[in-house]
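Deliverable D2.4 — example input (structure tokens):
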């Protein structure tokens, strides 16, 4: 596939999620367009999204198996049970899932360097806005407002574009360093 930026945005598609050997159709909401510039970026975002959905429903599906005294193989051969899982677990989780920055035990973001940079930019902007209004925010509120800012359709796109440019420059600078090992 060509990984070059495309001029015409593509629309969202669907992807297959496999959990406990069962396959479910979920959205692939990220596509080439603004601010995602390449098929590779869209693919990476969709893969991360799919993993987040899988992680979010895996234990719930296992609990469904246990409470209904069934196994994955039973559900695989029973479309009614599979549809029940899709309707009661997978679908609602997909609808409520927000694709935001993840935090670990120390509050730091793990993963995508662009999202890490975007959250740093957004946190800085939130703190600046609070200071300008003589307000003090707790760290959790700064993070919550920063996530909202990154997820905003227009402001988030600008922040992500800036973060992408910063990360690209950092990688270019790192690539320019020559080491003799």
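Example output (designed residues):
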């Amino acid at each position: 596939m060509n990984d070059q930026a495309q001029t015409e945005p593509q629309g969202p598609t669907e992807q297959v999620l496999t959990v406990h050997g069962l396959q479910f159709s979920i959205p692939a909401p990220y596509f080439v367009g603004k601010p995602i510039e390449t098929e590779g970026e869209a693919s990476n975002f969709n893969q991360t999204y799919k993993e987040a959905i899988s992680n979010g429903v895996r234990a719930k599906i296992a609990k469904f198996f246990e409470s209904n005294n069934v196994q994955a193989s039973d559900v695989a051969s029973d479309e009614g049970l599979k549809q029940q899982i899709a309707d009661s677990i997978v679908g609602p989780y997909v609808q409520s899932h927000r694709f935001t920055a993840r935090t670990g035990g120390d509050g730091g973001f793990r993963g995508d360097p662009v999202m890490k940079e975007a959250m740093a930019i957004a946190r800085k902007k939130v703190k600046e806005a609070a200071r300008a209004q003589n307000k003090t925010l707790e760290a959790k509120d700064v993070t919550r407002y920063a996530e909202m800012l990154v997820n905003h359709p227009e402001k988030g796109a600008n922040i992500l574009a800036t973060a992408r440019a910063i990360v690209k420059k950092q990688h270019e600078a790192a690539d320019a360093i020559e080491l003799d090992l």
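The longest strand covers residues 13-19.
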